[in-house]
Amino acid sequence: MSTAPQNLEVNKVKPIVAEPVSSGQHDLLDTVPWLPCSLTLELPVPHFTIADLLALREGSIVETAFHHTSDVPLRVNKLLVGWTEFEAVGDRLAVRITEQI
Q: Mean pLDDT of successive 10-residue segments in the chain (101 residues)?
Protein backbone atom coordinates (compact mmCIF):
# COMPACT_ATOMS: atom_id res chain seq x y z
CA MET A 1 0.00 0.00 0.00
CA SER A 2 1.29 3.46 -0.89
CA THR A 3 1.92 5.94 1.90
CA ALA A 4 2.20 8.92 -0.43
CA PRO A 5 -0.34 11.69 0.27
CA GLN A 6 -3.26 11.67 -2.10
CA ASN A 7 -4.92 14.75 -3.53
CA LEU A 8 -8.64 14.60 -2.86
CA GLU A 9 -10.95 17.36 -4.01
CA VAL A 10 -13.25 18.41 -1.22
CA ASN A 11 -16.19 20.70 -1.76
CA LYS A 12 -15.63 23.46 0.72
CA VAL A 13 -18.71 25.36 1.85
CA LYS A 14 -18.02 28.88 2.96
CA PRO A 15 -20.31 29.80 5.87
CA ILE A 16 -22.16 33.12 5.82
CA VAL A 17 -20.85 35.21 8.68
CA ALA A 18 -22.61 38.40 9.70
CA GLU A 19 -20.05 41.11 10.15
CA PRO A 20 -20.60 44.54 11.67
CA VAL A 21 -21.79 47.06 9.14
CA SER A 22 -19.35 49.88 8.51
CA SER A 23 -19.73 52.76 6.12
CA GLY A 24 -19.62 51.50 2.57
CA GLN A 25 -20.70 47.94 3.47
CA HIS A 26 -24.15 46.41 3.11
CA ASP A 27 -26.11 44.74 5.89
CA LEU A 28 -26.62 40.98 5.46
CA LEU A 29 -30.40 41.56 5.37
CA ASP A 30 -29.94 43.84 2.36
CA THR A 31 -29.13 40.72 0.32
CA VAL A 32 -32.58 39.15 0.87
CA PRO A 33 -35.16 41.96 0.55
CA TRP A 34 -37.60 39.52 -1.12
CA LEU A 35 -37.74 37.21 1.93
CA PRO A 36 -41.38 37.15 3.18
CA CYS A 37 -42.19 37.89 6.81
CA SER A 38 -45.30 38.31 8.93
CA LEU A 39 -45.98 41.77 10.39
CA THR A 40 -48.52 41.93 13.23
CA LEU A 41 -49.93 44.49 15.63
CA GLU A 42 -51.29 43.22 18.92
CA LEU A 43 -54.46 44.66 20.40
CA PRO A 44 -55.70 42.86 23.49
CA VAL A 45 -59.48 42.60 23.71
CA PRO A 46 -60.43 41.62 27.28
CA HIS A 47 -63.45 39.40 27.92
CA PHE A 48 -63.92 38.65 24.20
CA THR A 49 -65.88 35.43 23.71
CA ILE A 50 -66.75 33.09 20.85
CA ALA A 51 -70.26 34.56 20.99
CA ASP A 52 -68.74 38.02 20.44
CA LEU A 53 -66.76 36.68 17.50
CA LEU A 54 -69.83 35.10 15.91
CA ALA A 55 -71.80 38.33 16.38
CA LEU A 56 -69.28 40.42 14.39
CA ARG A 57 -70.75 42.02 11.30
CA GLU A 58 -69.66 44.71 8.88
CA GLY A 59 -69.53 47.96 10.84
CA SER A 60 -69.12 46.24 14.22
CA ILE A 61 -66.93 48.05 16.74
CA VAL A 62 -64.71 46.07 19.10
CA GLU A 63 -63.41 47.83 22.20
CA THR A 64 -59.76 47.11 23.03
CA ALA A 65 -57.77 47.45 26.25
CA PHE A 66 -55.61 50.18 24.67
CA HIS A 67 -56.29 53.88 25.02
CA HIS A 68 -56.28 55.58 21.60
CA THR A 69 -53.00 57.34 22.50
CA SER A 70 -51.24 54.18 23.73
CA ASP A 71 -48.43 52.60 21.76
CA VAL A 72 -49.21 49.22 20.20
CA PRO A 73 -46.58 46.44 19.98
CA LEU A 74 -45.25 45.70 16.48
CA ARG A 75 -43.96 42.18 15.80
CA VAL A 76 -42.22 40.59 12.82
CA ASN A 77 -42.46 36.79 12.81
CA LYS A 78 -43.58 36.95 16.48
CA LEU A 79 -40.47 38.93 17.50
CA LEU A 80 -41.08 42.33 19.07
CA VAL A 81 -39.35 44.91 16.87
CA GLY A 82 -40.97 48.16 17.97
CA TRP A 83 -43.97 50.17 19.10
CA THR A 84 -46.49 52.03 16.96
CA GLU A 85 -49.43 54.39 17.27
CA PHE A 86 -52.52 54.50 15.08
CA GLU A 87 -52.99 57.38 12.69
CA ALA A 88 -55.63 58.24 10.12
CA VAL A 89 -54.21 58.83 6.63
CA GLY A 90 -57.01 60.02 4.39
CA ASP A 91 -59.72 57.37 4.63
CA ARG A 92 -57.29 54.66 5.82
CA LEU A 93 -56.00 53.59 9.19
CA ALA A 94 -52.21 53.45 9.45
CA VAL A 95 -49.58 53.01 12.13
CA ARG A 96 -46.62 55.25 12.79
CA ILE A 97 -43.52 53.60 14.27
CA THR A 98 -42.71 55.43 17.48
CA GLU A 99 -39.87 53.23 18.77
CA GLN A 100 -37.65 50.57 17.23
CA ILE A 101 -36.05 47.94 19.42
A: 52 54 65 87 89 95 84 92 91 91 91
CB 40 within 8 A of CB 75: yes
DSSP percent split of the chain into helix, strand, coil, nearest 5: 10, 30, 60
> What integer pLDDT is reported at residue 1 of this predicted model?
52
Alpha carbons 68 and 71: distance in angstroms, whole number:
8
Bridge partners (DSSP) of residue 82 are: 74, 100
CATH fold group of domain 33-100? Surface presentation of antigens (SPOA) (2.30.330)
Report domain extents, the chain. Answer: 33-100
pTM for the full predicted model: 0.57
